[in-house]
Design goal:
This protein has a 6-stranded mixed beta sheet with strand order 3-2-4-1-5-6. It is an alpha+beta fold.
Length: 172
Amino acid sequence: MINIQNINYIHIEWEGPFLYEEVSRLDKEHDYGIYQIYGCHPIYGSDVLLYIGKAQNQTFAKRLSQEGWGQWNRDASRVEAYVGRLSGSETPEDWDNQINLVEKLLIYAHGPAANTSNLNSIPDESANLHVLNWGQFRDLMAEVSGARWSSLFDDIPNWAAYGQHGIQKLDR
């Protein structure tokens, strides 16, 4: 058994779906975090996870107005957004860093069709991150563990199924 110390649990409260043009009202002091875009993809079909992004230094309204998902998708009237706000008992000082790490981990774990970065690796500092998705998180996994997706377990010595090592008994 491998023990990981200091696991950082980050809770995300998801809301949606919003039609793409409806996100323009998400412009308050708490409208920062992670978002998902769903729509039509030429290979994967209709109503699929296209993109995971972050609204880090600007609100969801500002960030999503820059992307044009509702303009360039071939079924633009059905493009939907879900927004996820990092939540807890207090707002931490490293809120920006948490948004950044969560976005990278969720992209890596889910592989959205239109994301081009963070698909091949995540930072090792994500190994002790555990994301819990609440509310309307749609097609995301309810829990995403950085330990599972990081390189933490890439080189475990003597890796084999239990029983192949021989049974080791404790001397009492």
